[in-house]
Amino acid sequence: MNTSLKVRRLAPDQGALLRELRIAGLREAPYAFGATLQDALSADPASFDSIAPQLAAAEDNACFVLYTEGQPAGLIDAFFEAGGSARAFIRALWVAPAVRHLRGGELLVATASQWLSEHGARQIYAWVADSNTNAMGFYERLGFSSSGDRQALQSDPLQWETLLVKHA
Q1: CA atoms within a 13 Å half-sphere pointing along the CA-CB vector of 94
Q2: Domain 5-167: which topology?
Q3: pLDDT at 1 over 90
Q4: What pLDDT score does 38 carry?
Q5: CA 130 to centroid of chain Cα atoms
Q6: CA 47 – CA 58 distance, rounded (Å)
C-alpha cells in the first residue's frame, strides 16, 4: 500500500466533506450506488451535518474517509444490518479516479472490514450492481464471492445487484 494514503473515521464536524464525497461518487459512477445524484444534490446540506456526528460515534455503523497527501479522495460505509441479524456490510465505496492506482479502495475495504471484525462480524457482505463489472472484479480479487442472493437496484429497478460475501 502507498504510504501517502491514510484512512480516518469520519469526524463529527465533517458533514460538508461527507456531502462533497457522496456527490463526487454519484457524479462519477451514478450506476454504482443505491441513491441517485439528484437525491444527494436535493438533500438539505444540514442533513449531512446531522448525519456526520452519528456516524462518528455509532457502534453499529461508521464511515471512513481516504486521504492522499492530506486531501480527501474516497470513502466507505461499514454497518451492521438492523433487526438483530448482525450481518455486517460495507457499502458506498468510492475512490477518486485520479488516485485509484494507489490502491486506496483496498485500504478502505481493509479498514472497514477490520472495524466490522473488531465489532463481532464473522462475515462481511457487499451489494454490487451486476452492471458494475469493475467493482465485481475488484471485490472478487479481495476474496468476496457471490452469496447467491440478488435483488433489483433501489435506484433503478430495471437493474440487478448481487450480494457478495467474505469471511472476516
Answers
A1: 22
A2: Aminopeptidase (3.40.630)
A3: no
A4: 87
A5: 17
A6: 17
Mean pLDDT of the chain: 91
Contact 53, 88 (CB under 8 A): no
Contact of 66 with 30, CB cutoff 8 Å: no
In this structure, are residues 60 and 77 in contact, taking their beta carbons and an 8 Å threshold?
no
Whether the CB-CB separation of 63 and 75 falls below 8 Å is answered with yes
Backbone angles phi, psi at 71, to 5 degrees: -105, 140
Nearest to 115 by CA among 68, 81, 77: 77
> Which pLDDT tens digit goes with each residue over 97-135?
999 999 999 999 999 999 999 999 999 999 998 988 999
Count of CB atoms within 10 A of residue 78's CB? 27
- Cell numbers at 131, concatenated: 452492471
